[in-house]
Amino acid sequence: MTELAGRTAPRLRLDPTRCDGAGYCAEIIPELVRLDDWGYPMVEPRPIEDPRLLRLASRAVGQCPRVALALTAQPERR
Ligand code: SF4
After folding, report:
1. What's residue 8's pLDDT?
2. pTM, rounded to two decimals
3. What residue owns the CA closest to ligand 1's atom 2?
4. Which of 35, 46, 39 is nearest to 71 (CA)?
5. Ligand 1 center from residue 61 Cα (angstroms)
């Protein structure tokens, strides 16, 4: 787990059950979101340590029309 100044770096998470597949998030932050062959996002699960990427990820979360994205410090459950 990656930590910065005593806290865990957040990760971008997608709830695919909410996503409409319009792909708006990939336009905002293509560094962390790519679209599959059907136009649905595939989110890079790594911790976001770059402040610029974190700002873009936060914007993508705030502008997702289906509230399908979140920033969380929790590692992915397997
Ligand atoms: S912006 Fe939200 S609803 Fe649109 S593709 Fe991205 S995650 Fe899905």
Report:
1. 87
2. 0.86
3. 64
4. 46
5. 9
